Queue: 2 jobs
Job 1
Amino acid sequence: MMSKTNQEWNDIFVESKARFPFGSVNNLQDVFKDPQVVHNKTVRLMNHKTVGEIKQVSSDLIFNQL
């Protein structure tokens, strides 16, 4: 799997009409640049007591209290 990029594997699976689920596994940089993550505004900053501010991807589910 390391011989090709995520995009190359994705193209191969799409072109071969793969009959199994597949998708890219993103590194952390790519996660925070993902168009869906950006659009849904699911990046949250969290303050950690020893390392400082860190990025997290939160759920896009919002629960309303009744």
Job 2
Amino acid sequence: MTSSRRMGEARTCGAIRHLARGASSMARITVCALSLAFFLAGTVSAVPLALPAPTIFAPGVISGVTNDGTPTFTPDGKTLCFSRYNGHWIVLLISHFTNGRWSTPEVAPFGSSLFDQQPAFAPDGRYLIYARSDMPGSSEFVRVDKTPSGWSEPRVLPETVNISRHISQPSIAANGDIYFNAVVITAGGTEKPKSRLYRAAMVNGMYQPAQPLSFSDGTHVDVDPAIAPDQSYVVFSSKDRKPFEDGKEHLFIAFQKAGVWGPAKPIRYEGDTWEGTGDGDARISPDGKTLYFTSDRSAPLKASRTHTEVIADYKRMVQWDNSNTNVWTLSLETVLRQGGIE
């Protein structure tokens, strides 16, 4: 999710966007009541969809004082892996849900001295794919498998998936297909290409050559796909797609029926033109009905506050609300019904 593409140009493919968010102003227009609207293809009319307001996820534990994002869950929802980063380094952490709360995150056992980020569990929890970078502006996808004793050694995915060194944000469907975004530079190209969304299909245990999604034609900067387990929809971030043309990344959704992708539609909510750097790093819960995304938005401040309220605001600031990126969550059930998914 964000300024240009995570530590890709700064360190790894993607983190620069998060870093830009972390450096943004404390002034935020934040979420109060949430309403979602879809702009129908070829029109400017919108159908309002009422959703619950997005909420901060696990403040002070998962969403903390550094930059946090891309939480991915095991099938039972009780273990998550996510990225945490500062201006110099990014690392993968693991937390477990026990006794009604998330445990203090620990460095993933398969973590390396390189820049590891953007983890994605397979829907069955048997393996995890993430982006790894050993040099600025360049990354590749690697896979680790769950074993009886822990995790396997990381292995690099084939070139049918790793189609570019400017690749990020893997997301895995139930049948093994992998979705991601990439910038593919062709020989003799005269223009700087834009990030597009791709799918590498799994056939007989082998990844087929990745192909761009039909609605991601290079006209816009499309990043951070989160595919539903059954591939009925994908949530992603895009820059300068209508109705947003403010240079920031916003959340969109596209539905697939009978193997055909429909148009990208914006996920609208009150305050979605706030002064941050954008929303991204979408991840979907195991049941496919809850969206997790990363944003540097802040909680609203009252124009006039009592001393007690100021103390409470300060406690929140030193816990998580300090303009760095955090994980937010909202229900997708209403919008899925709008798309014909129950």
